[in-house]
Amino acid sequence: MTHFDAADAAVEAALAAGATYADARVMHRRYESMSARNGDVEDLTQRESAGIGVRALVGGSWGFFGVPDLDDALARRAGARAAEIAAASATVPNRRGGQGLIPSEPEVGSWASECRIDPLSVPLSEKGDLLTSATAEMRKQGADIAVGSYDIWDTRKWFVSSEGHRIDQHVRECGGAITSTVIGDGETQVRSYPSRRGQFGTRGWELVEETDLGAHAARIAEEARALTRAPQCPAGETTVIIGGEQLALQIHESVGHAIELDRILGWEAAYAGTSWLDLSRLGSLRFGSELMNIVIDPTYPGALGSFGWDDEGTRAHKRDAVRNGVWTGVLAGRESAAVAGLDYGGSVRADGWARLPMVRMTNVGLEPGPHTLEEMIAATDDGIYMDMNRSWSIDDRRLNFQFGCQIAYEIKNGKLGRMLKNPTYTGIGPRFWASMDMLSSDIVAWGTPNCGKGQPGQTGHTGHPSAPARFTNVRVGVRG
Amino acid sequence: MSDQTELELAARVLELARASAGPSADVDVSVNRVALALTRFANSYIHQNVADTTTEVQLRIHSEGRTASASSTLAGADALGEMVERTVAVAKASPVDPGWPGLIGPTPVLPSHDIDEAIVDASPADRASRVRDYIEAVGDLTAAGYFRTRYRSSAYANSAGQAVSGACTEAALDAIAKTASLSDGVARQASRRIADIDCAVHGARAAAKARAWDGAVEIEPGAYEVVLEPTAVADVLYCLGNFGFNGKLVNEHQSFLEFGSRQMDGSVTLVDDGVSAFASGLPFDTEGTPRRRLVLVENGVSRDAAYDRRSAAEAGVAGNGYAEAENAAFGMSPGNIRLEPPAGPAPTEVDGPVSNSSVLELVARVGRGLLVTDHFYTRCLDPRRVLMTGLTRNGTWLIEDGEIVRPVKNMRFTQSYSESLGPGNVLGIGSDAIALPYNYGTNSATAPGLHLAAWNFTGGASG
Question: Which of A221, B198, B300, B409 is a plausible cystine mate for A180, CB 3.0–4.6 Å?
């Protein structure tokens, strides 16, 4: 039987068991990772996971069941179990009425991500040599701990719904990173390339090749060593230029999560949290300065949050989230949109066949600004330039944040000065974004492969087009 | 496959792999079957209700100095055969692995705890019923959270002759109650037995906290004496486990640990014990190494850390049962860490924001400080000091002269967790430790309340 047959069987069984709507998603994922430390390969893992997840709606309430088998009988049993669970949900119903779905065209089609070099077909010896040589070089140049790694995901999905959806997708994702750690006197200093965890995208091994890890090994080892001798980032309020890699995470945490409709509706209140955004002010609330234009775009070629359809069959489409500083859009699914009275979904995904699809970021990022990094530095009399994430924390309404970066430089009279260690900055989301007065045109779509959300926990893959930007009156240098 | 025990499946895959890789290869197989069900509610109704049953087979082959690891949820004969052949081929093509620590030989493990059949057999209706109890107990407040049941049955077998199996059960509640003005309170508990978790009691407790936190005011940040509720202490224990007692980080000198040194207050004894009466862990890890009670800190003196076989070999010690296949790069952490409470009377329910009488006793000793219910989004600035930043959550109050005087808004802290427990900094430990669930895996922390001399709050709710 085909994977579509298994999904059809599961949906039929859910309907037969009383569901008024059902969908089923067969997923088959292969994963490979390798890590090297100090010149030797430390871990090589390959994982394979396949199964079917079924979602059923009974009396306005939902149930989900997943099984790691794809034969007809087990698929049918999964459908029936999903309906049984939904019926149990209906005993503790929403007093304001059941949750339906906004209308959707029954989409039929196929989609595959761009991939020039299949990452799973690249010889392990080649991939191993890349990591061992880069980590050996970092070690030679002064790193106490030199680590390199890559991750590859190859995911195929077949989606069927009782409304007539019939979609298959093939998504290949990969990325890699190197990190140098130096142990100082009661401290550690870290430098990574190209980002804290690596640059990831819905692309083939060509992305890792373009990253050219080996060419940056010596530099980051030397910088990590130099950081142990550098002065502390001063404490106070100043002008800050934030590099594109760090700003990508700032977008992820303080914009992306804040505009998730499930959080706004309170569905994540007990765990991930809610949002400071009030739906009644969608379209009028000022989120940031006029320079702030944030777009939700799962069609962005090669970015980590790209797809053809989301995991409830909504075709990928581009939408404004913030336009000229005003909040204009949310990340939504068909169910949350129905509750909120909105007419669009398209941002629902699941981490594997055994997990319920939920509202997730796709690619959420900045449109380019009019400046260059050099112009921003030249225009700053007194400030700090910092980049590359080291720590991140934000409150449960996505307002109060504190980020730590790996490295910073003082800016004096329009020029970069001394290297500074342990830079941190902290603030309140809309106040911070309102202070953005310069933005670079140099956009890079950074990938975040570790976005945690949901119970049971799910790990999401998201993309964040970002560029260096300047912010004024930012509190820096918080240390414990 | 469904009629096969996990140990029989492990033995079958081991036989296949040995036949393919040859008699000189080191081969080990770990099989984990997890039946997880989680009923999630928000806005006082069940909005996400999920279950899955997954069997995962993990295989490692070390042959001619090279190592490969693989896992699959496809447990059919063809799929397993393909996984074996693929892993043998990958091992041949892999770079040399000079750090391979070898396999454990035949070694007995402690017996598993009795399985709670009520967890194994829990139906969607059972879980919904418990959720209803919680929601009814919070009354006119809004309820959100989850009730979870999990049954795990695992086996391990290797080519050196080790073959062990075990099982564990866990039920957990993690939920809040929220007032119309958005103040909230939390209730949280994990147990090996579903009957231990009284959702109505927890609902009432969370509601009391939420009501007591209503009308919170902002106060100046700075260093405050604190009483941490067990829910906040659990975060301290998790972070100390991840960054302090992680054997790999100890090897790399990224941890603060210096064995034999008095690094914490004399009142602090930390143990990790996944097979204790409190926790719901297995008696062995994914390398077949037995787990036993591990003393991490004894009366303030640092004693031990968590190792898999590879990090243990690097340290020149024996592995102590902390291998988890997915943690190889970061290192191994204690999964069921417990702060030992002093002897004391059984706690009783109390009115107001404090969770029970054992924490209220700590509050009574505070001159001026804060009662903190929970931590949120704590992240590490530097592992060397377990320097963390995060926020308070689910209820914080100002204490003056031993009395709770007013609710205060959430605050950001930036604090070295290891130094917060340093000599002289621990002013009291509650007499009642409760097991608290973790969002990922079967980890838990068992924590009493904790009275600390200082906690560094670096920002208020408004920045």
Answer: A221
Structure confidence by residue, pLDDT tens digits, A222-275:
999 999 999 999 999 999 999 999 999 999 999 999 999 999 999 999 999 999
> Cβ(B279)–Cβ(B273) under 8 Å?
yes
The burial of B99, by beta-carbon neighbours within 10 Å (0-12 exposed, 13-18 middle, 19 or more buried), is given as middle
Top residue of B39, B382, B393 to mutate, by most chain A CBs within 10 Å, is B382
Q: B180: closest CA among A266, A370, A255?
A: A266
Would the CB atoms of A68 and B415 count as touching at under 8 Å? no
Whether residue B253 and residue A144 make contact (CB cut-off 8 A), yes or no, is yes
Test the B interface: residue of A48, A150, A450 with most B CBs within 10 Å:
A48
Helix residue ranges per DSSP H, A275-351? 334-340
Instruction: Give the model's confidence band at B1: pLDDT under 50 very low, under 70 low, under 90 confident, else very high.
Output: very low
> What distance in Å separates the CA atoms of residue B330 and residue B322, rounded to the nearest whole number?
13
Q: State residue B442's pLDDT score.
A: 66
Q: How many angstroms separate the CA of residue B170 from the nearest CA in chain A?
A: 14
> What topology does CATH give the domain B6-213?
PmbA/TldD fold (3.30.2290)
Which among A51, A128, A457 has CB closest to B439? A457
Mutate to test the interface with B, among A271, A388, A435 (most CBs of B within 10 A): A271
Please report, in angstroms and rounded to a whole number, the separation of the first and last CA atoms in chain A. 60
Rounded CA-CA distance B86/B63 in Å is 14
- Do β-strands B45-63 and A61-67 pair in parallel, antiparallel, or remain unpaired? parallel
From the list A66, A85, A393, the residue facing B49 with the nearest CB is A85
B274 has a pLDDT exceeding 90? no
Average pLDDT value over all residues in chain B:
94
The domains found in chain A, sorted by start residue, are 3-229 (3.30.2290.10), 236-476 (no CATH)
Say how far apart CA A81 and CA A22 lie, in whole Å: 12
Which residues of B are less than 8 Å from A395 in CB distance? 376-377, 391, 393, 410, 412, 461
- What ipTM does the predicted assembly reach? 0.96
Exposure on the CB side of residue B199, measured as CA atoms within 13 A: 24
Spatial separation of the C-alpha atoms in residues A303 and B382, rounded to whole Å:
30
The helix (H) or strand (E) run that includes residue A399 is none
Sign of torsion, CA B247 B251 B256 B261? positive
Q: Look at residue A99 and tell me whether its pLDDT is greater than 80.
A: no
Give the closest-approach CA distance of A48 to chain B in angstroms: 5
Stretch (H or E) spanning A199: strand A199-201
Count of beta carbons in the 10 Å neighbourhood of residue A431: 15
Q: What is the DSSP letter of A421?
A: B
pLDDT digit string (tens) for A109-150? 999 999 999 999 999 999 999 999 999 999 999 999 999 999
Q: Return phi, psi of residue B61, to 5°.
A: -130, 130
A149–B391 C-beta distance less than 8 A: no
Tokens of B379: 């992240």
Domain ranges of chain B: 6-213, 222-459
